[in-house]
C-alpha cells in the first residue's frame, strides 16, 4: 500500500483538508498529514472542518501531528502545501520524495497553496477547491494511483 504524507505549517487546515480529500478520492492508500509548527493532538481549524463537512469529509476526530512525530520510513511520497514546506522537509529528510501538491500535479506556475488561517470562511472554501483541483490533476496524471482507486 502506498504511504503518503501531506505537510503544511500548522497541520490545522491545508494538510488535514488534503488528507481528508485524498482519502475520499482514493480508498486504498495510507494517507496522513503533519505540520512543522504545531503540537501533536490539537484539533483541525473549525472553518476547515466546516468546509470539509459540507463536502462529505469528517475532520471532527482529526488531531494534529508535529513533523517530528512522523515515522518517514516507508513513506513513498510527501506533498507539501508550499515550496517553503517542501524545502524544509527535504532539509530534514534529504532522501524523501517530496514535492508541493501543485508541483506534483504538473500544471501550475504558482506552487504554493495560501494558508487560509488569517482569513474567514471564504478563504477556507477557496483553499479547499484549490487543493481539490490539484489532487484531481494528480490522480489524472500519475498512473501509480490508478490501481488504488
Major sheet size, sense and barrel closure: 4 strands, parallel
Shape assignment:
globular
Beta-strand percentage range: 5-15%
Oligomeric grouping of the chains: single chain
How many helix segments? 5
Q: What value does the Rg take, in angstroms?
A: 14 Å
Per DSSP E runs of 2 or more residues, the count of β-strands stands at: 4
Give, in order, the helices and strands: EHEHEHEHH
Description:
This protein is α/β, with parallel strands linked by helices. A four-stranded parallel sheet has the order 2-1-3-4, sandwiched between helices. Helix 1 links the parallel strand 1 and strand 2. It starts with a strand and ends in an 8-residue tail after the last helix.
Topology:
Blueprint: E1 3-8, H1 14-25, E2 30-35, H2 46-54, E3 77-80, H3 83-92, E4 98-100, H4 101-105, H5 121-141
Parallel strand pairs: 1-2, 1-3, 3-4
Helix pairs in contact: 1-5, 2-5
Condensed summary:
With about 150 residues, the protein is an alpha/beta fold. The protein is about 40% helix and about 15% strand.
What labels describe this entry?
four-stranded parallel sheet, alpha/beta, 4 strands, 149 residues
Amino acid at each position: 500500500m502506498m504511504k503518503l504524507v501531506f505537510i503544511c505549517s500548522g497541520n490545522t487546515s491545508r494538510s488535514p483538508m488534503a488528507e481528508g480529500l485524498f482519502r475520499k478520492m482514493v480508498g486504498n492508500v495510507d494517507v496522513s498529514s503533519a505540520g512543522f509548527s504545531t503540537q501533536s493532538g490539537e484539533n483541525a481549524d473549525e472553518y476547515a472542518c466546516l468546509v470539509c463537512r459540507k463536502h462529505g469529509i469528517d475532520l471532527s476526530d482529526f488531531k494534529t501531528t508535529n513533523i517530528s512525530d512522523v515515522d518517514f520510513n516507508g513513506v513513498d511520497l510527501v506533498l507539501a502545501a508550499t515550496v517553503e514546506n517542501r524545502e524544509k522537509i527535504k532539509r530534514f529528510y534529504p532522501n524523501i520524495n517530496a514535492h508541493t501538491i501543485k508541483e506534483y500535479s504538473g500544471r501550475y506556475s504558482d506552487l504554493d497553496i495560501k494558508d487560509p488561517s488569517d482569513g474567514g470562511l471564504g478563504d477556507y472554501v477557496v483553499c479547499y477547491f484549490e487543493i481539490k483541483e490539484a489532487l484531481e490533476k494528480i490522480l489524472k496524471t500519475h498512473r501509480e494511483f490508478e490501481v488504488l482507486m
